[in-house]
Amino acid sequence: MNIAILSVSEKGNILSSKLKKLLDNDPTVIKIDTFYKNVKSNINNIFDENNEEDNNSHFRKHDAIIGIMATRIFVRAISPKIQSKDIDPAVLSIDDNGKFVISLLSGHLGGANELTLKIATLINAEPVITTSTDINNKIGIDSLSNKYHWEIINKKEILNFNKQILEEKTD
After folding, report:
1. What is the pTM of this model?
2. Is-contact 49 42, C-beta < 8 A?
3. 146-150, long-range: CB within 8 Å, 24+ apart, which pairs?
4. Are 95 and 140 part of one and the same domain?
5. Per-residue model confidence (pLDDT) at position 133
6. In angstroms, rounded to a whole number, what is the distance separating the alpha carbons of residues 82 and 75?
7. Termini Cα distance of the chain
8. What is the DSSP code string of the chain?
């Protein structure tokens, strides 16, 4: 996994460095790029570099983007770049004090929920995941496809399929 970590404050920058050191020891992490300040231009560069790779998530420069800043600032910065759950990288938000790690985008297909849990454990923070299947202790079809490297042909059916799982329907 290739990760970009953005921070805007000095506290956030310190947490960014700490997180980079912790993730450098993770065998699933290939590379970590850190960015400090200039959120909009850094977000533009990160997403533009990803898009240069033909929107193929297997070849994007960053599989995950972590913003250590106020969530509203981060959301406003990334919102013009958001495309869809099957294209967007995992996006997480962490507050400057490292109290909460929030899964924002691509929770299942992009792995944001799993990365949220991993980082929250590393920095002793509270993970915030609001995906219905996760909070109801169910495994969604998109989580299974990500875990087992399955391809979902009709991604528009993910919501309906997961709804059936939540409602425990078998027909």
Report:
1. 0.79
2. no
3. 146/108, 146/109, 146/110, 146/111
4. no
5. 67
6. 10
7. 37
8. -EEEEEE-SHHHHHHHHHHHHHHHT-TT--EEEEEES-HHHHHHHHHHHHHTTTT-TTS-S-SEEEEES-HHHHHHHHGGG---TTTSPEEEEE-TTS-EEEEEE-SSSS-HHHHHHHHHHHHT-EEE---HHHHTT---HHHHHHHHT---S-GGGHHHHHHHHHTT---
Amino acid at 124: N
pLDDT in tens, 62-72: 999 999 999 99
Closest CA to 93 of 7, 17, 1: 7
Average pLDDT over residues 51-75: 77
Structural domains in the chain (count)? 2
Do 73 and 156 have their domain in common?
A: no
For residues 38 and 122, membership in a common domain is answered with yes
Burial 94-112 (b: 16+ CB within 10 A, else e): bbbebeebbbbbbbbbbbb
What range defines the domain where residue 123 resides? 2-130
Whether residue 151 is found in the same domain as residue 95: no
